[in-house]
Amino acid sequence: MFIDTHCHLTDEYDGGVDAVVNRAKNAGVGIMVCATAEGVDIKPALQIAQSHDNIFVTCGIHPEHTDLNPNDFLTDDVLNNHFVIGVGEIGLDYHFGNQTRDAQIELFEKQIQIAIKHNLPIAIHTRDAEDDTIEILKKYPDAHGVMHCFTSNWKLAEFALGRDFYFSASGILTFKNSESIRENFVKIPNNRIVIETDSPYCAPVPYRGKICEPAFVVETAKVLAQIKNLQIDDLEKILCENTNNLYPKMNLL
Ligand SMILES: [Zn+2]
To answer: Which domain covers residue 119, as residue numbers?
Structure first.
């Protein structure tokens, strides 16, 4: 069984979320982690988790929503919910939001502090912001979690490995021009890797251009098995263990 450790199930999908979850389960993707990004998606995400088996939630505000106050959404009630296993996605995005750097840093730090208070792992989004991500994490030695959809440079990988972070491979791993990302994943130890779709974005080969959905995470697993020289069944077991270690509230093993 595969686990999609980061997907946005509150988005619009062909046939709705029930169809997406069924297609995932038919493809061998038995567990999904629904990530939130804009505050208002937390309630719908929790409803999806409550009405399906094996769907968990991470709650967080993405750096493009610097107008939001995380205290309004990441309340004790929400974070103590049985289905909420982490804080995310949070982080920095200087590719799209170069003008809001200071506000992004403030939002990121506030959410790291909330995660530490609740002893929850964080799912980090970082784009064109490697150095600041490192500097901020240095301020919070207790912060732990995953570099979601990891496409950053080796400098950040090395730092995050030193902090026992996990690295999540998305559909981007399968793209023809992602040679440097594949090289990084070859170097990252097997026990630090998880996989995700980040659906509805970044559909893997051979589904590029389509609306991505959790069923497609199998394609990322196939490429990962290939570059890691692993049998797909062995990789499946390793990824399950890693995901359970990353998100202990899942309590899989
Ligand atoms: Zn995402």
So the answer is: 2-250
Q: Which helix (H) or strand (E) holds 168?
A: strand 166-169
> Which CATH number characterizes residue 21's domain?
3.20.20.140
Q: Determine the distance separating the centroid of ligand 1 and the alpha carbon of 169, expressed in angstroms.
A: 12
**Dist CA 161 CA 197 (whole Å):** 22
Expressed in angstroms and rounded, the spacing between residue 123 Cα and the centre of ligand 1 is 9
How many domains are contained in the chain?
Answer: 1
Tokens of 221: 């697993």
**What is the tens place of the pLDDT at every residue in 33-74?**
999 999 999 999 999 999 999 999 999 999 999 999 999 999
Q: What distance in angstroms lies between residue 8's CA and the mean position of ligand 1's atoms?
A: 6
Tokens of 97: 């939001």
**Where do we find the tokens 């990824």?**
239
Nearest residue to 95 (alpha-carbon basis) of 72, 47, 128: 128
pLDDT class for 138, splitting at 50, 70, 90? Answer: very high
